[in-house]
Amino acid sequence: MADDVRDGQKIEATQEPDRFAAIRERFNAGEELSDEDIDAIADVAVRHVRNILGYFGEDKIVVDEYEGDDDELILDITGGDLAVLIGRHGRTLDALQMVVSSLMSSTLRFHYPVVVDVEGYKMRRKEKLRSLALSAASRAKRQHTRVSLPPMNAYERRLVHLALVEDGEVTTHSEGEDPSRRVVVTALKA
C-alpha cells in the first residue's frame, strides 16, 4: 500500500481508519442515510472538486450542494470563468464528472451517485433534451415515420428514452457506434 504524509508524519495507508465504513454498511443495506452521512459525503465531494479546480486557478468558486430527484448528490459550481469547464457539448463537464466519481468511489469505497454541474448547465440540457424528445415524438406520430436525433452520449440518450417511456404511440431505441450513437424515435402503427 502507498504511504501518506500527514502533519509531517508518515502514515501507512493501512493504518488510516475507514471513516466511511458505517456509512457504507448502511448504504449497502439499503438504509436511508442521515443528513450527517450525506453531509460527510458532500464535504468529501466538494473538497475533491475544489482541489481539481485549484489546478486551473479557479479558487473563487461557490459549490452549492443539494439532493436530486433520484437521491443523488448534486454539486452545482458557480463563480469564476467556468465556461471552459463545460466544454463543447458538455464533454469537459462529463470528464470532470467521471474524475470526481472515481475519486469519490476510491475515497468512500462504495459508489454514491454524485452529479457535478456548472452553473446549472446539466439541468438546462436535461430540459432541452426532454423538449427535443417530445418534439421528435410529435413529428414521428404526425408523419407516421421514424425520427433520428443527433448523436448523444449514453447519459443524454437515457434521458431521451425516459422522456418518452410513457408515450404509448412511439418506441425508442439507440443506433450506431459511439461517438455517433443516436436515439431513433419510431411511431407505432395505429
Kindly list the characteristics that best describe this protein.
8 strands, disordered N terminus, Ribosomal Protein S8, Chain: A, domain 1, GMP Synthetase, Chain A, domain 3, 190 residues, single chain, alpha+beta, 2 domains, 6 helices
Q: Could you characterize what this model shows?
A:
This protein has helices spanning 21-28, 35-54, 83-86, 91-108, 121-143, 154-164, and strands spanning 3-6, 9-12, 62-67, 73-78, 114-118, 146-148, 170-175, 182-187. By secondary structure, the protein is an alpha+beta fold. The chain has 2 domains: 8-119, K homology (KH) domain (GMP Synthetase, Chain A, domain 3, 2-Layer Sandwich), CATH 3.30.300; 123-187, 2-Layer Sandwich (Ribosomal Protein S8, Chain: A, domain 1). A 3-stranded mixed β-sheet has the order 3-4-5, sandwiched between helices. Strands 6-8-7 form a 3-stranded antiparallel β-sheet, with helices on one face. The chain has a two-stranded antiparallel ribbon with strand order 1-2. The chain starts with a strand and ends with a strand.
